[in-house]
Amino acid sequence: MNDNFTEEITPLLIEWRRTLHQNPELGFMEYYTTYRIGKELEKLGFIIHVGVDALESASRMGVPDEPLLTEQENKALHWGVEESWMEKMRGGNTGVVAIWDAEKNGEHIGFRFDIDALPIKETDAKDHFPSNHGFRSQEDGVMHACGHDGHTAIGLGLAHFIAQYNDSLTGRYTLIFQPAEEGGRGAKAITDKGWLDEVDQFYTGHIGINPYPVGTIAATTRGFLASTKLNAHFKGVASHAGMKPEEGKNALLAAATAATQLYAIPRHSGGPTRINVGKMSAGSGRNIIPEASYLEIETRGETKEINRYVLEEAKRTLHAAAMMHDVEVMIDFVGETEEIECDDSLITTITEACQSSNYVTEVLPFAKVSGSEDASFMTNTVQNNGGKATYMLFGTELPYGHHHPAFDYQETVISVAVDAYIHILKGGMSHE
Questions:
Q1: Signal sequence span per UniProt (predicted)?
Q2: N or C: which end of the chain has fewer CB within 10 A?
Q3: Is-contact 235 330, C-beta < 8 A?
């Protein structure tokens, strides 16, 4: 077996990352991204499932409105996506699941890589690496500001290894390129399709989050929170603010009342909780009583039960604010995650496997994190069916944090992650 595989494929990893970075797409609109991934996997000989064949369409959450989907579909067709591929993806059914069977008895190992970008305008500052190396986002207001371009490149690198070393492999491999991770919207749709039901070991992870040196990885993580994402629409009555203010029902005030009072939800003694109002819009003019307003909200808790407490209190607060101002409120649920508890037994597996890596310099047993991850649906399904699962971190310097317009990472971390996964696979390889 060629121990230089990672070194040899690194130029391709960088090329894939930069191409994807230039062409970012938001969740459930990753048509071009899905196509590029699928064509590469098809060329390698994987059995691929795309779009409606890869996910349970009815389980998607927070699907964009039809005009946005149509606009992105037309753009992707212009970028070269074949019509036959688009037919499987139309309406926001994106993502790829790739299957490889080595046709020798062994474990079923699954990997997940998220592929979506964020609604952020990327900086054009000269000291921003993508800007001064010619691969800044070409989509105004859309950016890979969380490293998913690198995650996708990692998955493709691992796929190349599997295809090249099939003769030494045993068991089955499922590679999941998941849409709409941002906002906790896509993983459940993949999970509900059944891809994780028979997986024995499941690995996923993230570039960065904690700013470790390149070469340092964490075998497990602790601290991801269960979360619910919701949108609240207040509907009031418009009226002239000077002549007939008493006839108006002010939706803006209802939203403002809700926004401030949501932060007054008592903490929970059972564990950490979070609440955030991330967006508010309302009104049409200074002399008009606002008839409509809109909030984007998220709740979080250490467990599903604690998050449910925050969620129920949030719903009660929203309804109370609406009642106070005599307006209506509609609540849409647009995303969800569960907590993650990694299998500590995989710490030894990963640490021992990476001892011979020329790229991994240190394996931390765990990293403390916060935030939320919809890969939780996948890890929990694997564990509930008797398998083992973990969420890893791959260290890199972070000049700016995730979801920042100047976010970037050291590209060498992509090779580190590929090599770590390769060495995990090597631990279960045939050595005949």
A1: none
A2: C
A3: yes
Q: Where are the beta strands (DSSP E) in 310-407?
A: 328-337, 362-364, 367-368, 388-394
Q: Which residues of the chain have pLDDT under 50?
A: 430-432
- Distance, CA of 144 to CA of 396 (rounded, Å): 16
pLDDT digits (tens, 9 = 90+) for 78-116: 999 999 999 999 999 999 999 999 999 999 999 999 999
Burial 221-239 (b: 16+ CB within 10 A, else e): beebbbbbbbbbebebebb
Q: 355 Cβ partners below 8 Å, 6+ apart?
A: none
Residues 204 and 257 in one domain: no
Sorted by sequence, the CB contacts under 8 Å of residue 30 that are 6+ apart come out as 94, 95, 115, 116, 179, 180
pLDDT of residue 2: 58
Q: Which residues pair with 328 in a beta bridge?
A: 235
- What are the tens digits of pLDDT across the range 245-274? 999 999 999 999 999 999 999 999 999 999
Q: Give the annotated binding-site residues.
A: 146, 148, 182, 206, 403
pLDDT at residue number 430: 46
Distance CA 181, CA 391 (A): 14
Range of the domain at 267: 226-336
Asked if 229 contacts 184 with a C-beta cutoff of 8 angstroms, the reply is yes
Q: What is the pLDDT of residue 370?
A: 86
pLDDT reported for residue 175? 98
Q: CB neighbours (10 Å) of residue 426?
A: 19
Tokens standing for residue 289: 């009583």
Say how many Å lie between the first and final Cα of the chain, rounded: 12
Annotated binding site for Mn(2+): 146, 148, 182, 206, 403
CATH number of the domain within which 147 lies:
3.40.630.10
CATH of the domain at 332: 3.30.70.360
d(CA 75, CA 86) in angstroms, rounded, equals: 11
Contacts of 127 (CB under 8 A, 6+ apart): none
Final residue belonging to a domain, choices 280, 304, 336: 336
CA distances from 368 to 151, 163, 276, 391, 416 (A): 20, 34, 21, 11, 20
Instruction: Indicate whether 431 belongs to any domain.
Output: no
